[in-house]
Design brief:
By secondary structure, the protein is mostly helical. The protein is built from 9 helices and 5 strands; from the N terminus they run αβααβββααααααβ.
C-alpha cells in the first residue's frame, strides 16, 4: 500500500519505483501479465498513477501493452541484451575516465569497501554488491547526467543476472567477479586511465559472455520480438 497523504507526484513516483524494483528483481517475472485493477486494489489509488507508472516502464522497455488485455512484463530480448552491453561499455568507459580525472583521493579510497564481496554469497546479496560497486563509479564521475543514465542502465542488469543464474543452475563465480573488481580498483586508484578502462572492458565482456551463454536456453527469452 502507498501512503496517500503524499502529493500526487510523489505517489506516482513511489508506485513507479516499487513496480520497477519488482520487475528488475524478477518478483514480477518476464512474461507475467499485469492488470490495472489488481494494482489499483493493491496500492489503493486511482487508475491514473498506476497507468502513468506502467507507461513509464513501457518507455524503459520493461513492460509492454497488450491491447484489450492489460500489460505484461517484457520478456528478455537477446538482441536487446547485446545492445545493452554495448551501451554499458561506452557509459562505463566514460565514467571510469572522468572519475580518475576529477575524483578526490578520498573518493577513490572509498573504492576499497568493494574490495571484498558480500558476507553472504547468495544471489541477491551478490547482485546488490555488484550494483553498488558500478553505481559508485558512476555517481562519482563528476557528470550528474552521465551518472543518472549509467545508474539506470546498471540497475537494468539486475534481472539479467537473476534470470541467467537461476535458470542455468550454475553457481555464481563470486571470486572471479570480486577479483576483477579489485583489478579495476587498483587501476583507478593508480589513476591509470588506460589500464582502468581496459580492466573494466574485460570485466563487462566476461559478464556479457556468461549472461548470453546462460540466456540462450531460457524460456523467458523473446526470440522473435518483431513477430509479436
Amino acid at each position: 500500500m502507498i501512503v496517500t497523504d503524499k502529493s500526487p507526484d510523489l505517489v506516482r513516483d513511489d508506485i513507479y519505483q516499487k513496480l520497477r524494483s519488482e520487475v528488475l528483481s524478477c518478483e514480477l517475472r518476464p512474461g507475467q501479465q499485469i492488470q490495472e485493477r489488481e494494482l489499483v486494489a493493491r496500492f489503493q489509488v486511482s487508475k491514473s498513477p498506476i497507468r502513468d507508472a506502467l507507461l513509464k516502464l513501457e518507455e524503459q522497455g520493461l513492460v509492454e501493452v497488450l491491447p484489450r488485455k492489460g500489460y505484461r512484463v517484457r520478456r528478455i530480448d537477446i538482441r536487446d541484451v547485446r545492445d545493452m552491453y554495448g551501451i554499458r561499455h561506452m557509459l562505463e568507459r566514460e565514467c571510469v575516465t572522468l572519475m580518475i580525472e576529477t575524483a578526490s583521493d578520498e573518493v577513490l579510497e572509498k573504492l576499497e569497501t568493494f574490495r571484498s564481496g558480500p558476507r553472504h554469497a547468495d544471489l541477491s546479496s551478490w547482485i546488490a554488491y555488484n550494483r553498488a560497486f558500478h553505481s559508485y563509479i558512476a555517481v562519482n564521475c563528476g557528470n550528474a547526467r552521465l551518472a543518472r543514465i549509467s545508474r539506470e542502465m546498471i540497475e537494468q542488469f539486475d534481472r539479467l543476472t537473476k534470470v541467467s543464474v537461476t535458470s542455468s543452475g550454475d553457481e555464481m563465480s563470486l571470486d572471479i567477479y570480486v577479483r576483477e573488481h579489485g583489478e579495476i580498483i587498483d587501476a583507478i586508484r593508480a589513476r591509470n586511465k588506460r589500464q582502468a578502462t581496459a580492466r573494466d572492458r574485460e570485466h563487462i565482456e566476461s559478464s556479457r559472455k556468461r549472461v548470453l551463454d546462460s540466456l540462450e536456453t531460457v524460456s523467458v527469452i523473446d526470440t522473435d520480438p518483431d513477430g509479436r
